[in-house]
From TrEMBL:
Lineage: superkingdom: Bacteria
Residue stretches making up the LysM domain: 434-481
Record-level Gene Ontology MF annotations: metal ion binding; metalloendopeptidase activity
EC numbers: 3.4.24.-
Protein name per Swiss-Prot or TrEMBL: M48 family metalloprotease
GO biological process, one term: proteolysis involved in protein catabolic process
């Protein structure tokens, strides 16, 4: 199957605790290094591939600059920094010195100092060995326990990681939150690394503020006024006073407002990078998901959010969780549905699967059923709607809802899957960042009108450039806009 870019909710973006620099054990064992190397290719594949070249080398350079402040022996060699081709604002670290950051998160940044903060925070998690606590917690959480916990809540990455086939152990480990104290410690470490590297530490608070604004806007765009918390903030929550704490700590470092920003260099590196989805992995646009290469489209109900991935599209809402994916198909939809359900439930319990019912959706042969699954937190309904795409390919939605609801909340979604024409497919182009220089007479409104979106243009422009309604542009100032590029 062509790439989707699955989100495993394991981002780590930042919090803060005391003003005293915490003590961390920066040693990286040989076993941890080997494990990181062994898992690297799988992680990169799960997140849509790595972006190398000038951008990759630049991130490695900035990462090394802050990592050497961690006191890890031979830090430049022991840490590795990778840019992922993912449309999710995300960054995470794994034991062994590997740090990952997505192009989407970099697109939200204003300068190199903000990049240094995020990378420094991730280095802090490794230096402080925070993963050991999370791993112990993961071993105490069965798949069924996690499935039960998500009913009636919004934790899309947990479901996406556990329903989608592949990398299940890794997904489970990283969907668990860092503790409040661990986040505070990593923020403190990260800001300390920034200060020692000569960066303006006020960038930490600026980055946190931008993430909060992006979260609120994304919820509005996807039709949920309740402002659901996105995946990166679920595992590393943004408390109400987090930005203020970061600013307070920054003021005590001596580099607040006077350290390095390197804005022009940073903007030159991200000029032209993709924003949002890579068409080769499918496009999320509001409530619709379209894959131009595989020629299909579906629409999620109002109030649900999507993240697309290499193996699945994850769908999350207050009334249920779902994925859209594919699997091995022998031509029999009943067999396929049973295979999907067994892949989700595993061997932990026997589940009675009612005989699937045949139907047709927009001319596509389909079948569906709902099984009752017992979890540590009560019973849930696990429904599967499978579609015969051709003789060799089937797609499916796997949906988890409260017991008794079945497909109910997802009815409009499963009925919306359709084939798209070659003309529709050809019209889909990537969105890219274009760094421009403000000219005399330009306003936020006039530049926002050039954004490659059909809604929330001004709001998107302000979030992208860390601006608010009181901001005023000046001639000669560089700003980012999002335009359509070429495939």
């Amino acid at each position: 199957m062509s790439k989707f870019t699955r989100l495993l909710t394991m981002s780590s973006v930042l919090v803060l605790a005391s003003c005293a620099t915490p003590q961390a054990d920066p040693a990286i064992s040989q076993q941890e290094r080997q494990l990181a190397v062994e898992n690297h290719d799988a992680i990169v594949a799960e997140f849509g591939g790595a972006l190398g070249g000038t951008l990759g080398a630049y991130v490695e350079q900035v990462g090394d600059r802050v990592a050497i402040r961690s006191a890890t022996p031979n830090a430049a060699a022991n840490y590795r920094f990778t840019v992922l081709n993912s449309p999710v604002e995300n960054a995470f670290a794994i034991p062994g010195g590997h740090v990952y950051i997505t192009r989407e998160l970099m697109g939200l940044m204003e300068d190199e100092a903000e990049l240094a903060f995020v990378l420094g925070h991730e280095v802090g998690h490794i230096a402080a060995d925070h993963s050991s606590t999370r791993q112990a917690r993961a071993q105490n959480n069965s798949i069924l326990g996690v499935l039960g916990a998500i009913v009636g809540s919004v934790v899309g990455g947990d479901v996406g990681g556990l329903l989608a086939q592949g990398a299940q152990q890794y997904a489970q480990l990283n969907t668990l939150s860092y503790s409040r104290d661990q986040e505070y410690e990593s923020d403190t470490l990260g800001i300390g690394y920034m200060a020692a590297s000569g960066y303006d530490t006020l960038a930490a608070g600026g980055m946190l503020s931008s993430l909060g604004q992006a979260s609120a806007l994304e919820s509005r765009v996807q039709g949920n006024d309740a402002r659901q918390t996105p995946e990166w903030a679920r595992t590393h929550p943004l408390s109400e006073n987090r930005t203020a704490r970061a600013n307070q700590l920054a003021q005590q470092t001596g580099t607040a407002g006077s350290g390095t920003r390197n804005r022009d260099t940073f903007l030159s590196r991200i000029d032209g990078i993709y924003v949002d989805d890579d068409p080769e992995q499918g496009i999320v646009d509001g409530r619709s998901f379209t894959h131009p290469d595989l020629r299909f489209q579906f629409v999620v109900p109002t109030g649900f959010r999507m993240q697309n991935g290499t193996r699945a599209v994850n769908i999350a809402g207050s009334s249920g969780q779902a994925i859209f994916s594919t699997g091995q198909f022998n031509g029999n939809l009943d067999t396929y549905i049973g295979q999907v359900i067994r892949g989700i439930v595993g061997d932990q319990q026997q589940v009675s699967v009612p005989q699937p019912r045949d139907t047709t959706i927009n001319g596509i042969p389909a079948a569906y059923t709902t099984a009752r699954v017992n979890t540590n937190n009560g019973a849930v309904d696990l429904s599967v709607m499978a579609y015969r795409w051709d003789n060799d390919t089937a797609y499916h939605f796997a949906m988890i809802t409260q017991a008794g609801q079945g497909i109910g909340p997802f009815t409009s979604m499963v009925d919306s899957l359709r084939r798209i024409s070659s003309q529709e497919a050809a019209s889909i182009r990537p969105r890219v960042i274009d760094v421009i220089t403000v000219r005399s007479g330009d306003t936020m409104q006039s530049l926002a009108s050039r954004m490659a979106y059909n809604n929330y243009q001004l709001e998107r422009f302000m979030v992208l450039n860390s601006l608010d309604s009181n901001s005023r542009l000046q001639a000669g100032q560089k700003v980012k806009i999002v335009v359509y590029g070429q495939r």
